[in-house]
Amino acid sequence: MDYQNRAGSKFGGGGVASQSATNADRRERLRKLALETIDLDKDPYFFKNHVGSFECRLCLTVHQNDGSYLAHTQGRKHQTNLARRAARELKEGRDRDGVIPGLPNVQVRRNMIKIGRPGYKITKIRDQVTRQNGLLFQMQFPELGQGNAPRVRFMSAFEQKVEEPDKNWQFLLIAAEPYETISFKLQAREVDRKDGRFWTWFDEDSKEFWVQVLFKTERDERYSNVPGLAPSGPRR
């Protein structure tokens, strides 16, 4: 920094730098230091927005150029946030790459890019013996990896946040990465899970997934929780 030719100073005497000049010099030194140690292409917190400015996703700050961002990465705020992030990840039992310390072969599941929804077909069915009503779901997962199978879960209307909860409905969720999770809105009737009435099957060759859902009859729903009452058998 040139202290000699500062206005009002004697030749060779230097002179007192202003606060703004000192800050500018400090930022320039930090920028040069950061250029030697940081690769912006590998910085997970570096982001260029739609207006051409640069953002720090860790500190939520905006910078007009890459030099300003690099100087920011060497500052106290960024370094403090890095230390806090590292301490939190260590407390959660994982490092930045999502690896659990002591278990190098175990990876924490990370966000995956979804490729869309699977094709599906729904058929109304009815058991010829018990006269139970139900649904048969057929879904196609052609891009599903080998060894993976879709997962099924029933969810009440009060668990979802897409629409107003209604006790008269429930949801059947089908999840299979990398596909989007799909859901089907069903009547809030009790599903009959005995004697293979509710089953799932995945064909590894055709990548087709089948789900059969049969609902209990009104009598079974009414007396299913009555103590000492045996379940009704097939009607003849």
Automatic annotation (TrEMBL):
<dbReference type="GO" id="GO:0000245">
    <property type="term" value="P:spliceosomal complex assembly"/>
</dbReference>
<dbReference type="Pfam" id="PF12874">
    <property type="entry name" value="zf-met"/>
</dbReference>
<keyword id="KW-0508">mRNA splicing</keyword>
<keyword id="KW-0863">Zinc-finger</keyword>
<dbReference type="InterPro" id="IPR031781">
    <property type="entry name" value="SF3A2_dom"/>
</dbReference>
<keyword id="KW-0507">mRNA processing</keyword>
<dbReference type="Pfam" id="PF16835">
    <property type="entry name" value="SF3A2"/>
</dbReference>
<feature type="region of interest" description="Disordered">
    <location>
        <begin position="1"/>
        <end position="25"/>
    </location>
</feature>
<dbReference type="InterPro" id="IPR000690">
    <property type="entry name" value="Matrin/U1-C_Znf_C2H2"/>
</dbReference>
<dbReference type="InterPro" id="IPR003604">
    <property type="entry name" value="Matrin/U1-like-C_Znf_C2H2"/>
</dbReference>
<dbReference type="GO" id="GO:0071004">
    <property type="term" value="C:U2-type prespliceosome"/>
</dbReference>
<dbReference type="GO" id="GO:0003676">
    <property type="term" value="F:nucleic acid binding"/>
</dbReference>
<dbReference type="GO" id="GO:0071013">
    <property type="term" value="C:catalytic step 2 spliceosome"/>
</dbReference>
<comment type="similarity">
    <text>Belongs to the SF3A2 family.</text>
</comment>
<keyword id="KW-0539">Nucleus</keyword>
<dbReference type="InterPro" id="IPR013087">
    <property type="entry name" value="Znf_C2H2_type"/>
</dbReference>
<keyword id="KW-0479">Metal-binding</keyword>
<keyword id="KW-0862">Zinc</keyword>
<protein>
    <submittedName>
        <fullName>Splicing factor 3a</fullName>
    </submittedName>
</protein>
<dbReference type="GO" id="GO:0005686">
    <property type="term" value="C:U2 snRNP"/>
</dbReference>
<feature type="domain" description="Matrin-type">
    <location>
        <begin position="54"/>
        <end position="84"/>
    </location>
</feature>
<keyword id="KW-0747">Spliceosome</keyword>
<dbReference type="InterPro" id="IPR052092">
    <property type="entry name" value="SF3A2"/>
</dbReference>
<dbReference type="GO" id="GO:0008270">
    <property type="term" value="F:zinc ion binding"/>
</dbReference>
